[in-house]
Structure formats: C-alpha cells, structure tokens
C-alpha cells in the first residue's frame, strides 16, 4: 500500500509519563470537598432468607454518618443490559449468593466505615446452596439460545470413519484487575457526576437514570485512567448505583470503592463451563460434522450466556454443524465476560478435540487444521474480509521448527518436554463511534473521544491515527478522553477500540483535511472535524452480521512445555504466535498485547481457578495472596510474536482489526497438547494442576 501520510511506527505511549510519575488520576484519586466513604455489608450465606439487619452498633460507631438498608433506598426497577444485574440487591429478602449487599455503611473515613461494617449484624435463615455442576439447566435465552444447525449432523456422525466425543471442563476465574472497582458520586442539584471505573462510560448514564428515575442527560461520567478491567468493568454494576443513591441521601459526595474481597461477589467472573464436543471426520482428518454443546453457570435470577460455541460455527469448514447453549442456575453471583470471552472458552474445547482428532487419524495437528481451512464463513458462506491464517500457520511453524520438533531433545534434567499447537481466533466487534478533531491555527491538534484508557494504549493509538491522517508530529497532538461530555467513541472492550473509535478519529481528521483543501490555511484560527463510524444495524453481532464480509482475527500458537517428572510442575519454555489481524498500527503496543495474551492463556491453562466451597457455596479465596496467577518467574523470555502483513479495508477505515484478546485464545489447548506430547496424559479439565498428572507420572517412572 502506498501512502503519502506520516507512517505510524514505534511511538511511545502518550500517557506513559503521567502514569510512571503518579500524575495520572484514577477513580480513587478523586476527593470532592466534603466526601464521605461507603462500604458494603454482604450476606454471610449463599442461599436463604434475610430476616433482619441490626445497624444499631454500627450507627453508634465513631465517624459513622448512617447505615443504609432496604428501607432507606429507592425501589429499584428491573434492569437490563448494560446493567450487570437484572434484579438489584435490596429488592427483596431472598439471599441468592454470599456477599449479596444487605447494608451500606457511610462514614467520614474509610477506616471508620470498615470498622462499623464489622458491627452490622445480619440475621439470615440459611438454605442449602445450589452448587456448580448441580443446578437446573435450561436453554440459554436470547441470541445464543436454542440450537444453530447447518446440514445433517446426525447423518455425519453415523457415517463418520473417525469419531471424537469428549467433554471438557473449565473452572471459573475472577479477573483480578490491579485496580478494584469503585465510584465517586457527587450531586449538584439534579445533576450527577460520577468518577467511575468502567470500560464503557457512555453506557452508565442510561442505567443510573433507569435505576434512580433520572434524566440520563443530567448524568456525567468521567473515566479516564482505568487500572485494568479484562471485562469486569464492562457492565454497570450495583455499586455504581449505590454510590449515586448514597450521595443523594447523604447530601454529600460519596466514594464507594470495593475491597478486594468484595470484587469476588460484586463484579462478575468467567463462569464454570462444561463443553461436549463431537467431531465426525474422514480417515484423512477432513471434518464432516461438528457438534458443540456448552453449559455455563449463571446466577439464580440473573443470566449470563458464554457463547463458547461460536468458534465451532466459524473456524473450520464442515458440511454439518450443530451447536447448543445451556445455562445452569446456581447460588453464585452472575458471571460476566472475561478477556477473550466466547472464543477463549470455546476454543479450549474445539481445539483440544482437533488435537485428539489428529492423534486418532495419525495426521499432524497442523495438517489437520490446514485440511479443514474455511475458504468462506462456515456459518453463512460469506467471504472473509481478510483471512491470512494459512500464512500464519506456515510462518509460525517455520519460526517454531514445528516440522522437526521431535528431532530435538525430549528431556532436560527432570523435565519432560512436549510440543503443542492450536488455532487462535476472535470475532470482530465494531460499535458506533464518534470523535472530534480540532486543528488550531498554530498547527497543534486536539483529539476528543469518550473512550476510557484501561491500560491497552488506546489513547496512543488514537493520537497516532490523527497524526498520520493530518501529517503532524505526535507531540503536536493533545488527546482528551474518558468523559461523557466528549463524543461517544464506544467501549474499551471486545477488541473494538481501534476499529471503532480509531475509524471515527480518522473520519474526523479527514473532514479537517477536506476543510483545509476547500478553504486554505489563511486566517483560520481553528478547524473542527466531526467523525462518525457506524455499522449497519448498530452493534455488529458476534457472527459478524450487518456486513457483506465476515470479520474475524486469526492466529497460530505453538508452545513448548516442560513437565517435572517428580512433581508434575509445568513450565512454559517457549512460545511462538503468528497472527492475521489487519493492519498493525503500532508494533510496540501490538506485541505487548499479544505477549500479555499468551501469558493470560498460560495462567488459564495451568494456574487460575476460583474455587467454590462445596458445603457453603461461597467463594473460597478472596484475596490475591491465595490466588495463583502467572508472575515474571513463570514466563520465559522466548516468546516470539509476529504478524502477517495485511490491510483490511472491509474491517475499518484504517485497515485494522482488533487484537486485544486474540493472543489469549488457543493457548490453553496448545498447552494441553504439549502436556500430552510430553507425558502421554490427555487432560480435559482446566487448570492443569500437578496432582492431575502425578498418578500417571508415578506409573510411567
């Protein structure tokens, strides 16, 4: 592609200096005059009835202003997305999960509020909780409920030369963002300002307005710097509504910032999943049928559907495809999307089954995937906007040395060495977005877009896009973001920011260039360009509808894993990932995203699980000290990430697709395949913990 514009290359992050010097202000750094502090009091049981809340001792505690219970709060209506819950706490006396808020302590200091919280007496009539794996199952509602059917799966299964049928389990996991969720609420008459930890600030006003009977136009949300989200801050959660309600009742600003322990029961998690795969194939490994039935847990009344079957609809060519989504109701708070939702969960099952198919047919796992490459969308036959997956396979195999992997040493001291691979893929979200670009008379530029910075470098990318379109240096760009008074640029989730907000910024900048061409530069104090990016029919759904082309990102992941023969410990020795994701705007931030995704996938595969108490139904570990996540010592320096050279005109105005979650997909299945290659044990439950391997290791030794 030839362009006379300034090329985007290796610019540093525009917000980096503010972050490393402490100048960047996060939600907890805001302290309006007269601010009070609120903390939640949660139900001590996972199921039962609330008989009463005694606040007497807490109200008498030093520094306490008041303690709110159901009788003090408004009657909350039923809510809908983007609210995180449908039935708000305090609506009735039914306890549906441990930690469900039953009181709110408001005090002059956070220390006083925390001390008083322990003095609130909660009287419950407990009931036996419904546990994970034991709840009633029902068809998932909405777009992903029921069945998707293409061709005759029953006939494909009956006629198959090779059949794979296995069930794969995935433990629930919490997001563990560095910054916990919180809100600062301040009223000025009927106008409400919220400083909020949220990944989509433009979705907050309508939810707050519905919950508190307000005009959404009077709700301003400021969400500039967010300390990570990974999906936990995608929805509008009850604590945001509580902060606004508490501030109105108290007549003073209120900060409600969740404790780490509160995160477990108040802002979602990735659900527990059970997935059953059927692959029907010819002796060559060519697929003739794919069946994928997925079950995820939901709350007792609130519903979350994890559409894990989407990969099975979209990744491989097959004449017959049948998928079904179910939910299981249990006594836990409602789940929510986590980084690489949908595909990340589904590819654990699909890609593991593909590796088992390779073993059953005696065909190399890479060749099985090449044999089933989908030239067009398997769902509806539409052409891909761009698909360079074949090149990613080839380059990844070359860089890894996949074809001669077994010619290398299979042991290294106590370590047994195995190799595995999988396909990575994510559907491409796009959201209606707007942006404003101002070109000043002195040649400086202001870019305005309401998109939170959750640590992914979004503000850098948007600044770079404006710099490229206008032909000005990056240091002449001023970025204004994270405020609902700015043009609504879409959310910071779904790997959608670059495609959506980036296209809006490009459109706004091009409008400025057009004005310059029409008017010239003489006597101009400021030119303003308004840019919009819209998808036909609004938000594009997960199968890529509303576009003439099917949009997805692709990749191939190869890993080398060591298994300690004595202790069953796992080590990631090296990884190679090659990805097809449209134009890569900033190689530095893109590489960081993909390495982070691979590390994320390693944690999912080998470490992370949120365990439910099998007697009382509550979450067991509610602090970071009892949570196993990857640290630097777990990660090798040999993580090789690269991208296929590509420009996707159909995806966005800037030729890019989203990459924020792609790197996290497929890693778990590749790791499980490497474990099998090393020790001959086929693991079908995540995480792959040492005790799952020790019995077989002892037998082999």
Automatic annotation (TrEMBL):
Keywords: Molybdenum, Oxidoreductase. Pfam families: Ald_Xan_dh_C (PF01315), MoCoBD_1 (PF02738), MoCoBD_2 (PF20256). Its EC number is 1.17.1.4. Residues 21-128 form the Aldehyde oxidase/xanthine dehydrogenase a/b hammerhead domain. It is an enzyme of class 1 (oxidoreductase). One of its GO terms (molecular function) is iron ion binding. InterPro entries: Ald_Oxase/Xan_DH_a/b, Ald_Oxase/Xan_DH_a/b_sf, Ald_Oxase/xanthine_DH-like, AldOxase/xan_DH_MoCoBD1, AldOxase/xan_DH_MoCoBD2, AldOxase/xan_DH_Mopterin-bd_sf. This is Xanthine dehydrogenase YagR molybdenum-binding subunit. It comes from Mycolicibacterium fluoranthenivorans.
